[in-house]
Amino acid sequence: MSVEAWVEVRALVPRGWEELVAGILSDAGCQGAREGSSAPNPAPLPEGMSLVRSHYSARADSAERREELEAKAAALGEIDEELQRVELSFRELPPEDYAKSWKKVWRPFRCGKLAVVAPWTEAALRPGDVRMELEPGGVFGTGRHATTRMILSSLQERLRGGERVLDCGSGTGILAVAARLFGAREAAGFDIDEGSAAVATDLAERNGVGAGVTFLEGDFSCLSELSPPYEVVLANLYSDLLISHAEELEAALAPGGWLCVSGLNASREEAVTEAMRGVGLSVTDRRARGVWRCLILERR
Taking each helix axis from N to C terminus, what angle separates 174-181 and 196-206, rounded to the nearest 10 degrees? Predict the structure, then answer.
């Protein structure tokens, strides 16, 4: 990981909402969200509150950037009144702080049979585990978020082997690479974040499936460079994007295939379901984790 200066975002969060706030920070371009203080003897927090810390590059720091993050935190109050208590603070870190902290605090994790490990770990795997080697600390997330985990679980349960899979908003590529590891014949993904295709391609090659995966950088216009339809379409996106691109998602789906969407919270489930119903897709299964939702949709 390159050495550079970072800004730490510290979010004071009502207990029980840590994962939601971590996801919001991640979606806003912050990296490595984790709970608790890094200090050896931290000051006690207000009763009922937790601390969530994340980071972003000092090169991207500005008054406008901080105001944008504070506005996202303030908007959380629309989800639940308790979230009006979220408070953000910022502090600059010397270059070595963030770079060194990753290997100290990052731990392997599993989702079903998928065991996600860092290159330097020697974690013992269970019989039947599928190993994915992931360099943590990347700009586009590490797969721990609830929405990603729900899609990973759906892939493991529903893939039969030999499918073609499309991941819309592929980020690190973890979903597309996992699909290949669990038997998909090929997978493709696209994401608007700068550098995402290179990061995702590296993940595929690192895990031995580079030959069967294609990643592009861009929005839904990338579909013209790919080869839909796909038997499985994944979309871990904001609810507004799921709604506005419902037609493209339906068009990318092969007859008899299934669409898995997440990135929406409970308050937007009905709106997303209605938008999908409008293009001929119905919910056939759903998952919930905290405030987050994951929907499986098929043609009526």
Answer: 20
Q: What is the rounded distance in angstroms from the CA atom of residue 89 to the CA atom of residue 78? A: 21
Structure-block tokens of residue 62 = 């500005």
Is 1 within a domain?
no
Name the domain boundary from 105, 134, 169. 105
d(CA 192, CA 100): 29
Q: What whole-number distance in Å separates Cα of residue 170 and Cα of residue 185?
A: 17
* Mean pLDDT in residue range 42-48: 88
Domain boundary among 89, 105, 121: 105
Q: % helix / strand / coil in the chain, to the nearest 5? A: 35, 30, 30
DSSP assignment letter at 134: -
Percent residues over pLDDT 70 in the chain: 90
Q: Identify whether residues 80 and 164 lie together within a single domain.
A: no
User: Encoding tokens for residue 125?
Assistant: 């795997």
Whether 144 and 277 share a structural domain: yes
CB contact set of 67 (below 8 Å; sequence gap of 6+): none
Is the domain of 78 the same as that of 61?
A: yes
How does pLDDT run across 92-128, given as a tens digit for each residue? 987 654 445 555 556 678 899 999 887 777 767 888 8
Q: For residue 228, what are the domain limits?
A: 109-299
**Minimum mean pLDDT range among 32-46, 72-86, 177-191, 283-297:** 32-46
pLDDT tens per residue, range 53-93: 988 888 899 999 999 999 999 999 888 888 999 999 999 98
CATH for 66: 3.30.70.120
> What's this model's pTM, rounded to 2 decimal places?
0.73
| Sequence-distant (≥ 6) Cβ neighbours of residue 228 within 8 angstroms | 166, 251, 252, 253, 254
Do 52 and 125 lie in one domain? The reply is no
Same domain, 164 and 276: yes
d(CA 166, CA 179): 10
